[in-house]
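Subject line: Sequence and fold of a protein, written as structure tokens
Area: Proteins and the way their chains fold up in space.
Start of record: The labelled sequence and token lines come straight after this line.
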Amino acid sequence: MNETINLLKNHKSIRKYKDQPIEPEKLKTIIECAQCASTSSFIQAYTIINVVDMDNRKNIAHLAGDQSYVEKCPLFLIFCADLNRSKNSCELNDKIMSEVNTETFILATVDASLAAQNALIAAESLGLGGVYIGGIRNNPEEICKILNIPSAVYPVFGMCIGYPDDTPDKKERLPQAVVFKTDIYHIDGDTSLIKKYDTHITDYYEKRTKGKRVDTWTHQVSGLMSKPQRPHMKDFLDKQGFILK
């Protein structure tokens, strides 16, 4: 197995970090790699904000659900879907950017996500670890105020990065046959595979917590997806100039 595949297959979310700063050259490399990600039509519709100010970090950690590692990690990045730059590019060429719609919203969100995954893979290749922080969408308006984020831009998620001070076990993913199909979408045979997968996840949590947590994947998903998820996001995106139609 080559080094790249080995790195990808051994990804773990790291939430505990050593009190060790990240070298400037490593940060530069991480951002360079983020910028090398695929991008729709070469638009590069994202901006990455490095949150250094510790008061801002503390506020963001609270707004994201009191996730202490947001405040404590050596490096905290926020990946934004950014169409403001496209608007400015239109103005430079005496054009008016078309109204931001669902397609351009998806475009910018995907661009930001691809850049983020490149950044995390680069960080892991340099001996660092990290975790995505979707909790910044709990209070996106407040996050925008803190970070001076303008219209046509929104924070997709954050990312904590640092030298790992934790070695969690790797979480087994769904069986490949559940997520990989040939020619057509179908769910034939998925139920039995997922039930078996549930037992593996139960074993994982029992081992990780020494029997304190008994859970399954379907139980987690059903608990989450049976409730509305961040219903404020539609109104927030409208205010930010993302008209989803």
About this structure: The longest strand covers residues 153-162. The chain has a mean pLDDT of 97.
